[in-house]
Amino acid sequence: METERPVRWGVLGCARVFERRMVPAFSAAAGSTLAAIASRSLEKAALMATRHGIPHAYGSYEALLEDPRIDAVYIPLPNDLHREWTLRALAAGKHVLCDKPAALSYADAAQMANAARQAGLRLQEGFMYRHHPQHLRLRERIACGEIGAPVHIHGACSYLADRSNYDNIRWNPAQGGGALLDVGVYPVNAARLYFGAEPVAVYAAAALDAQTGVDLRTSAILEFSGDRVASIVGGFDQAFQTRLEIIGTGGIAVTERAFQVGDSGVTLSVRIGDSPHTEPFPHCDQYARQVEHFTDCLRDQAKSLWPGEDGAAQARVVEALRRSASEKRRVRIEEIEIPALS
What we know:
Layout: E1 7-12, H1 16-28, E2 32-38, H2 42-52, E3 56-58, H3 61-65, E4 72-75, H4 82-91, E5 95-99, H5 106-119, E6 123-126, H6 133-143, E7 150-160, H7 179-195, E8 201-208, E9 215-224, E10 228-235, E11 237-248, E12 252-255, E13 266-272, E14 275-281, H8 286-299, H9 308-327, E15 331-332
Helix pairs in contact: 1-8, 4-5, 5-9, 7-9
């Protein structure tokens, strides 16, 4: 890709997360420009484009994908549409940053990863927290052995969801609603990241919403090799928390704002024995850093990007958790297979 011009991005859909988080992110991200937005309604797309100074608006997703000026697309569509429009974008020759979760099944996410690999295009599942300086620093401190070998990880992401509006896709099981896919995926992803491995088995318990059937809360244990364990919770029925604790053989690291950092700075606390140390980090836009990282990887193919295969591995774990909660039993990850073609 040419390095002398910005990467030109298009967005499929006018989701609230796009307007709240990604419009400022694209504005702040070096090397990128938000060039186009598409909606199923041209009027809606045009309104969003005018509001945020986006040059081009389209009344269909297909029209945006046909625009040869667009290099990459961001997909913040409902969860059940991620697979279809990621595959269409890749077929149109566009790189894809897809909002989490990548897909509703391991098979779908693996198909997306395979399509990107065969097309020679970049595909990444959007976990913005990985790009925040506190996590970059935490990974450094763990890698140098400061807290010893991590043996237990606890992660939680929850909030009190609005139960007065059941039209929201979060309450629609057919569209991939529920607490696990909305917020529980964050601590699951962090456990995989900080253990640097995939779990071998999981056990999950879910509390279901009586009216919609989606999970109000999913709590789970993820078993990793070497007798390592992660405990996670994602919930719609609890006070706000977005916490990550990593317990090692020689110390403990904790961040209270691990995934949603808010509008002020965050801190990383590390305790070795009786000696705690807190490291502050001023506010930064982790969504903008995610866009910048993706853009840098498009310009320099030698730079490391979490590929579509990482999104597929994440989807496999999430599918195992959902099966475990449904069947009320321990599920080995190897049980989650891609269905054989008939």
